[in-house]
Amino acid sequence: MQPIMEKTVILAIESSCDDTSAAVIVDGVLRSNVIASQKVHEEYGGVVPELASRAHQQNIVPVVDTALRRAGVTASDLSAIAFTRGPGLLGSLLVGTSFAKGLALAQSIPLIDVNHLQGHIMAHFVEPSEELKAATPSLQPFAGEPLPHPSFPFLCLLVSGGNSQIVLVKAYNDMQIIGQTIDDAAGEAFDKCAKVLGLPYPGGPWIDKLAKQGDPAKYPFAKPNIAGYDYSFSGLKTSFLYTLRDMLKEYGVETIDALAEQVPNLREDMCASLQATVVDILMRKLRKAAKELGIDQVAVAGGVSANSALRQAFIDYGKRYRAKVFIPPFSFTTDNAAMICQAGYFKYLDGDFCAIDEVPYAKTQI
Ligand code: KG4
User: Which of 122, 56, 104, 112 is nearest to 84 (CA)?
Assistant: First the structure.
């Protein structure tokens, strides 16, 4: 590892929801990315904000300490501290924000606020060190050879538990949402439908897993007809629910477990059909936007970008339309501080710092 003197060293802290994470970038190269996920929410079927804030309080010191140690730096080497200012759960954001402020004051270094959603998009610019890549299989490039980073402009499909957006990315610091969901997010649709099937939270990964053994054409669910580049998933959710309700009635049973005994492969086929419908809805609008705006580079980001069918749809899209597609390594699909650190690094190079009295925000646009 090279000596730290005279280098640009950025520490980033991410605490917007239920993952406490810290990362360090040295001269543009990611040296560490530590994530403590909170298991406490599993038994409640969703994130409990009060418990999330408490767990962040417990995790933040060891997580930051580990990130600095793994990067081979100390607090006194830092050039600046980046933190997620929002959107997210306010109590969770306050933990990371307050910690970042305290450390920045103690070290007399600048503070950089980062929008969480912009962070997800900036994950496509993270350059992990060779040591970190070798130690972290989920940091390996997805599907073969690493591509160079996207060049501007490109379109990014940002899909998570709270957002489904098409973002026109014109520069590191210039992004425009050109389409977004008018009701539920794609991840929310996965999670809610999974809950109806009696699957654990979060349901998205379970749907992905079961869908592998199911027939994607078995249940034709409703697709929205929305103008422009916007999305809607509430109709699909209702269609999913009504399909199950009608089958319960038809078979004269009251529970999904009883229905699954009567209908072979019920859960697998429902998951495969749901997943295929969500992916089709997402890709159609992305294709429309790319075609109409004449853009041949498309990226995907956010928690739902871990979905195997969506990843495959991006690969197919690239082949079919001769487009460059950018799919993040698995480590960068869930919330992580590496992406916040990358956004913070760009802001540092621009001298774009924030005041010590800035406060977090729960909701915001890019
Ligand atoms: O970006 P993210 O980690 O945070 C929130 O927005 O909360 O996204 C979480 C979402 C959840 O809805 C989860 O079910 C979904 O991403 N997700 C998936 C998969 N992995 C995570 N959805 C479908 N397939 C997956 N493999």
Answer: 112
Note if the bond before 264 is cis, omega within 30 degrees.
Answer: no
Token pair of 229 as six digits: 């580049």
| pTM reported for the whole predicted model | 0.94
Atom of ligand 1 nearest to the CA of 335: 3
Low-confidence ranges of the chain (pLDDT < 50): none
What is the helix (H) or strand (E) element at residue 14, kind and residue range? strand 9-14
* pLDDT for residue 193: 97
Which homologous superfamily is 154-328 in?
A: ATPase, nucleotide binding domain (3.30.420.40)
Q: How far apart are the first and last CA of the chain?
A: 36
* Structural class in CATH, domain 9-140+333-349: alpha beta
C-alpha 187 – ligand 1 centre gap (Å): 5
Helices 49-71 and 90-107 pack at an angle, to 10 degrees, of 30
Q: How confident is the model at residue 145, as a pLDDT? A: 59
Q: What whole-number distance in Å separates Cα of residue 306 and Cα of residue 42?
A: 19
Which SS3 state, helix, strand or coil, does residue 310 take?
helix
Phi, psi of 189 (to 5 degrees): -60, -45
- In this structure, how many other beta carbons lie within 10 angstroms of the beta carbon of residue 262? 13
Q: Which residue has the tokens 């949402």?
A: 177
Domain with CATH 3.30.420.40 in the chain: 9-140+333-349, 154-328
What per-residue confidence (pLDDT) applies to 268? 98
- Ligand 1 centroid, distance to 255 Cα (angstroms): 26
E strands, 102-173, are: 111-115, 154-159, 164-171
DSSP secondary structure of 241-263: HHHHHHHHHHHT-SSHHHHHHHS
pLDDT in tens, 156-204: 999 998 899 999 999 999 999 999 999 999 999 999 999 999 999 899 9
| pLDDT of res. 141 | 79
Q: Is 134 left (phi over 0), alpha (psi -120 to 50) or beta?
A: alpha
175 SS3 class: strand
- Our answer on whether the CB atom of 205 is closer than 6 Å to any ligand 1 atom is yes
Q: Which residues contact 257 (CB under 8 A, 6 or more apart)?
A: 198
